[in-house]
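Hi, here's the filled form for the chain we discussed.

Project: internal
Contact: R.S.
Residues: 438
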Amino acid sequence: MMNPLPPGHSGLPILGETIDFFTDPDFSRKRHQKFGAIFRTHLLGQNTIFMQGIAANQFILENENRYFQVTWPPSTRRLLGHLSLALQTGAAHQSRRKMLVQAFMPRALSGYISTIEAITHTYCQTWHQMGELVWYPELRNYTLDVACKLLVGVDNGSQTRLGQLFEIWCQGLFSLPIHLPWTRFGKAQRARQLLLEELTNIIQARQQNPSVAGDNALDLLINAVDEAGNHLELAELKDQVLLLLFAGHETLTSAIASFCLLVGQHPIILERLRQEQEQFHSAILSLETLKQMTYLEQVLKEVMRKIPPVGGGFRKVLQTCEFQGYQIPTGWNVLYQIGLTHTDEELYPTPQKFDPDRFHESQQTPVPKYGYIPFGGGIRECLGKEFARLEMKIFASHLLRHAQWEIVPNQDLSLVTIPTPHPRDGLRVKFQLMGNGS
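And the returned structure, exactly as it came back:
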């Protein structure tokens, strides 16, 4: 006899509970409270099962290509492009991942440090001149400039046509896939076509003049070969570069904005961070010196626990399986949950408290493997994880050593969660450099 389906309901005809999912930040929490650790719903045209907890994370992430295969909402799939690593599976995914990971190895990361420092310095000078600013849009420009420079070799990316098109494209990634010119999705599809044209020009210019190759991911990818000795075709190069730009921008902006928000709200933690940074005041930043910033590491881990940039991940069910007495049918989607894992009281006592000390090495009970997953897990763990950690740490270190920021009162700091978490009013702050600000 077949196991029963999980409890839940499908919502409206066709739409299901899609609108609630997009508009209610507590969508899954409310339903888990009602139905338990596993429930079913209907999202984006798909029967979908939400699963919560370490056992669920492990079951989904360790059974990639057996019971489950990566999937994304329809709008995301269409806008990323079918050649994107995010959509590739099996042997093709493993082969491409080996090529792309070259851009995030320690040697490559070391070469990125001075560029990230220089861009951070320039932005801090600008923010000092502004005095009071809405920080989140500025941080989007900052991470886009870093991503464009290090991943594509383009200077001041946020001010270029490439950067402007990229922002329009990002707006549609998690939207209803209604292909009309005035919808977010329709505008994003048009932006994708124009982005691909821009990338074609950049790639062809680089291929025709390899002597200008620099320290960026695109140049590495142009020269990379797979096991059979083949280079990436132009069409695939473009899809992979788009994915790298998205991964190196959207989620990173969220994480950095969350750092600025949470640390700005906790002056005692801010003071401890500044004290740690004093020993690095004249140090040349390197992978080694960054590694020594142990309290900053704890703080960044706690930022990513409390406000993970990605709330969960979709998988398609390849073959019917069973979990905790319920049937998980072929063809359905499942969603593993990062946000709810990180607020599990059994893993994290007083989860709403911002407490970096919970990640101190002296903690008696380390968090289990699938209890802390800001970058996902398993064979599809975020490829750019170390790049993200590097940029966050350099940005935070520079800010702590050279700047002061104060969150302006009377603004809405509740989080908009789509496409990634950020303060509703954009995080208005007063910003100034300390001392010589160098």
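Let me know if anything looks off before we file it.
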